[in-house]
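Weekly modeling sync, notes
Attendees: AB, CL, MP (scribe)

Item 1: holo prediction request
CL wants a bound-state model with magnesium ion before deciding which constructs to order. AB pointed out that an apo prediction alone won't tell us much about the pocket. Agreed to run with the ligand included and paste results into these notes for async review.

Input as submitted:
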Amino acid sequence: MSHQVPELTDTRVPRHVAIIMDGNGRWAVARGKPRSMGHRAGVRAVRKVIRAAAEAGVEVLTLFAFSQENWNRPDLEVRLLIELFKATLKREAKSLDKNDIRMRFIGDHRDFPAELREQMKSAEAQTASNAGMTLVVAVGYGGQWDIVQAAQRLAAEGRDINADSLADALDTRGLPDPELLIRTGGESRISNFLLWQLAYTELYFTPQLWPDFDGTALMQALDWYAGRQRRFGRVPEAA
Ligand code: IPE
Ligand code: IPE
Ligand code: MG
């Protein structure tokens, strides 16, 4: 069986960068502050990294903001994260639009408040015709959920299940797979993020906590990526 693998290209700036923004809580606790302060500082880092990624020429930036498993945190923290997300979206949507950024939200949103679901829909609609960077925010997202919902969708439509149709039914349909995954916060795990889409992604783990991450840190990760040789199972090119 021939399996579709990406073309070997020497494009040095990844088209799609995905980030697991981890370490907000530890950042705050290290300063004797409540975890909520870490999440607020995390929003400031998000703003810097969006700007830097767009300037670097990244086409798609996907940020993991809230996992399905994060529903298992204490109620108070979950509520705070939802409120922070709502307030941030409300405040930032206009300026993202002005910067020609197109927004997209992936994940299972059924358990989020109706008001927030509406905000996400209207931000998507408002920015749908923008031609700049696509900003994908993963909320209530789980990689296993995504594969299951894709398979269920294909089955319900009576469609053939193969690698192409499945990729097309994922919540990320239409987007290129990430060439680079960044995880801050020191853990070397995927935590049920984009499981299918990360099949051949370069993985960059940094001990930096998310609130300390910024444009310079992003450039360091892009530099690291530029030095990787991607083989996709083939043999290295002759020297
Ligand atoms: C990441 O930071 C933000 C979310 C998961 C919402 P954490 O809140 O996981 O921070 P740590 O890992 O506990 O430091
Ligand atoms: C992963 O961080 C999820 C997000 C960054 C949104 P977690 O802090 O939830 O991951 P684990 O629990 O350490 O694996
Ligand atoms: Mg964490």
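Recorded for review: The chain has one domain: 16-225.
Action items: CL to compare against the apo run; MP to circulate these notes.
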